[in-house]
Structures are given as structure tokens and as C-alpha cells.
Task: structure prediction
Amino acid sequence: MTDQRAYHDRDGLIWLDGEMVPWREANVHVLTHALHYASSVFEGQRAYSGEIFKLTEHSERLVKSGRLLDFEIPYSVDEINQACRDVLAASGLTDGYMRPLAWRGSEQMGVSGQKTKIHLAIAMWPWGAYFGEEAIRRGIRMIVSPWRRPAPYTAPTESKASGLYMICTLARHQAQAQGYDDALMFDWRGQVAEGTGANAFFVRDGALHTPTPDCFLDGITRRTVIDLARRRGIEVHERAIWPEELESFEQLFLTGTAAEVTPVASVGPWNFEVGDLTLQLRKDYLGLVNRLLSNS
Result:
């Protein structure tokens, strides 16, 4: 059963700056730089059967994201990995979602933040299918968001920075207010980009087509699915995709740590089938993360 309590009011432990802290005591001051100026980066990663999937890749990306925001996380990748494993053990969970978060503290206020202390916290909780099991069976329904992914010369788009998700929240709120599950975002050029928190793959004539991630994250799940597809001899085309092409695709699915592999039934006026290729790649992905397939 899903825990309906607010996220600040739960039992358990959160790793905070090198120590396990009771969940309700893992707090920050209201004048924390990150709260005012979005100077924070994060990861989303899942544990399956007692192991965090592609943990090192996530920790490496967290460190890279911090550097792109001009700060150095005061822990090595190995130390972050161990802290994540400690959180997994302390949680008592074998399957769940984990959130490492690094941010600038409250030592300095104003746009500049060079004097702030860099903090790191890691929490974990149970989290099932991101869109729900029924949505997986029927495929989710999406709209096209009016918000667009920014150009790489306007924001550090290679980072998993909290500030880049502001428009994602707005886009998803708008979709849900209209009775949809999520929104498809275009980029500043008008090309198809991604969902609000997941990469997109299209299927046509047995081949995959996915937007080139030149202004949004090249997701770890995205890369994993590309590898799984190529193992099966499926052609994968990473390229610019324009909205005019959407009517020519037969299937569409999203990939991400939270979304895993989620079929899409429609985006605005365009309809897609929950087809065999999508379902096979979803099965392959779940088999891999649950260690039923080789990760080599």
C-alpha cells in the first residue's frame, strides 16, 4: 500500500552530510541558497532485489552536475556509492526509489554562492509504477506542453539540476488538470525533446527513433534501453525529430528511472499502439534490473 503521509513526516533514516539522521530531523534553514536560487542537483535511482541499478553511473552524474553548477560535492564517487548502499541497508527495503541531493547551504545570501557549504543528503522510499499499473497496460495519455526545453547556451542542460525541472512541473500540472498523465515537451527549435521527466522513443517499421539529447539529459535508462534494443538487432536512430513526423510512428514509449519503460497511447491528436516491440523492451529492461539478464 502506498504511504500517503507527507514526505517530511515519515519514519526511517536519511543520510545527511555523512551521518544517518532521523527522517523528521533531516531539515535545512529557510535561507538556504538552493531554496532561493535553485543551486542544487539530484539523482533518481532505483534498487531492485537489494541492488541499486547502475549506481556508479548515477553517482558520477551527480558529481558532474554539481561541477556544472560550479560546486564540488565534498565526497568521492566511491563514498557516495557507499552512502547509497548504507541508506539501502538502513531502509530495510529491497526495492525502492532513492534520491541523492546536493545543494548550497545558508552561509551566503544573494546570487553569488561561493562561500556556501555544499551539503549532500540521500533518502529512499517505496515507489511503484510512476504512472500506475493500469497506465502501463493501456498506455499513458499525453498533451504537448507549451513549455520548451531550453537551448544549451541558456542553461546547463547536461546537468540534472533542480531548476531545470520548474517548467516540467508546470507542464505536468497543466496536463493533469486536463485529465492527461503527462506532457511531451519540444525544444527551443521546435523539435521533439522528451517527457517531463523521461526520454522518448518512437517505433516505425521495427526500428527505434529517439531525439538527440543535445539540450536535455541523455538518461541512464535511455542508454540502457538503446543497448537492449541493439542486442536484439533492432536499429536505433538518434536524430532530430520534428512534430510533423509524429503521425508516421506506430508506437511511443518513455524511459527513465521512475518511468522505467512506459507505453504511450496518445499525444494530443496522435495515437499510438501499445505494441509488441515496446512491451518486449519493457520486459527486457525489467529482466535486466532484476538481474534476470546479464548487465555486461
